[in-house]
Amino acid sequence: MKKFNFENFLAIKYISSKKEEKLISLSSLLSIISIAIGVGALILVLGIMNGFDKMLESKIIGANPHIIVKNFNGTFNLDNNLIKSIKTDKLVSNVYPSLVEQCIISANGQSSGSILNGVDFNDKPYIEKYIKGNTKGIVLGKELMKAIGVRVGQNVRVTLAYSNPTAIGFSPVSFEIPVTGVFDSGMYEYDLAFSYIPLNILWQKMQTYDLINTIAINLYNPYDINKVGKYLEHILPASYYFVTWAQMNKNFFTALKLEKIAMAIILLLIIIVAAFDIMNSLTMLVMEKVKDIAILVSLGATASNIKRIFIKQGLILGIIGTAFGDFLGLTLGYLLKHYNIVSLPKQVYYITKIPVDITFTYVVIISIVSIGLCTLASLYPASKASKMNVIEVLRQ
């Protein structure tokens, strides 16, 4: 015959009180609701922030080379042997030289600053998938075209922050060129700042043939940057250095991480408040069940038995509240991810649905922390119940 466990029986029984003890029962219910809301909100908010992080990361990785190689001297001669050496790494998918210059692009009486990238489109650079139209002329960012009011087919004037020596001094390089394509990465800042032009045309206008200032590297897996970085350290000459996409956006990703931690701490306070509600509820219950405890002790229950009854009650409340919270957070996350419940302005975010990415690890950690806090909250009332003077109670 299975042994009857009176500790579990009483822990469950005390959660639902009699009519005369409605206040205690209501307090337990409110504690469960508070835990559920706190856990659900924490799972959902972290899922949304994680979704935004991954979305922005994917856009940043997609619209930028994974690694760029520079020279401390600025511009340098195109070295095909160096490019071939970089390409020998099996993790590298593409390597191509480029000449990056700051410029002002003007049309229709409007001007805007831009970062002009001279690239060889025959090498099929990473940005090719974001370009609509052809690359025979200049390709402007979608937002940059709006800023200066031009369309594909119209001419723009490009004035570089570079001067050519002439008989009477230095003259800034300026030329007209038709817009033949649109760069649309989905990132407002990039679409406003970047423009692209065939490298041979830029060399011709600047009269700097075979001079570049950047070697762009793309990887099959953008997260292999550290492995490729170690390889580059061995093959690059002393005057060269490299920067990865993670280093270029370090401050941005650090800010997002700190924001996620701050939100987690704020929402964790809801669970902590709920844990205090459980402590208050159990303390009131101990005061209410003084005679019951005294009778249990007189029947042979030990202090440890009494203590475990109330610890188990706190644990049960924590498990119930956390389970409801997990269900709430996962359900809302699923609905937001798959249905357009909350619409976002596409012109601001370039997406219409809230990105949600709830990871199993987050759910497990949040659940363990929540149940742990509820169990810790039950230690004080449990200890108080176990140290009760039974003789005094029985005399009354």
From TrEMBL:
<feature type="domain" description="MacB-like periplasmic core">
    <location>
        <begin position="28"/>
        <end position="233"/>
    </location>
</feature>
<dbReference type="InterPro" id="IPR051447">
    <property type="entry name" value="Lipoprotein-release_system"/>
</dbReference>
<feature type="transmembrane region" description="Helical">
    <location>
        <begin position="23"/>
        <end position="49"/>
    </location>
</feature>
<keyword id="KW-0449">Lipoprotein</keyword>
<feature type="domain" description="ABC3 transporter permease C-terminal">
    <location>
        <begin position="265"/>
        <end position="390"/>
    </location>
</feature>
<protein>
    <submittedName>
        <fullName>Lipoprotein-releasing system permease protein</fullName>
    </submittedName>
</protein>
<dbReference type="GO" id="GO:0044874">
    <property type="term" value="P:lipoprotein localization to outer membrane"/>
</dbReference>
<dbReference type="InterPro" id="IPR025857">
    <property type="entry name" value="MacB_PCD"/>
</dbReference>
<feature type="transmembrane region" description="Helical">
    <location>
        <begin position="315"/>
        <end position="336"/>
    </location>
</feature>
<keyword id="KW-0472">Membrane</keyword>
<keyword id="KW-0812">Transmembrane</keyword>
<dbReference type="GO" id="GO:0098797">
    <property type="term" value="C:plasma membrane protein complex"/>
</dbReference>
<dbReference type="Pfam" id="PF02687">
    <property type="entry name" value="FtsX"/>
</dbReference>
<feature type="transmembrane region" description="Helical">
    <location>
        <begin position="356"/>
        <end position="380"/>
    </location>
</feature>
<dbReference type="Pfam" id="PF12704">
    <property type="entry name" value="MacB_PCD"/>
</dbReference>
<feature type="transmembrane region" description="Helical">
    <location>
        <begin position="261"/>
        <end position="279"/>
    </location>
</feature>
<keyword id="KW-1133">Transmembrane helix</keyword>
<dbReference type="InterPro" id="IPR003838">
    <property type="entry name" value="ABC3_permease_C"/>
</dbReference>
<comment type="similarity">
    <text>Belongs to the ABC-4 integral membrane protein family. LolC/E subfamily.</text>
</comment>
<keyword id="KW-1003">Cell membrane</keyword>
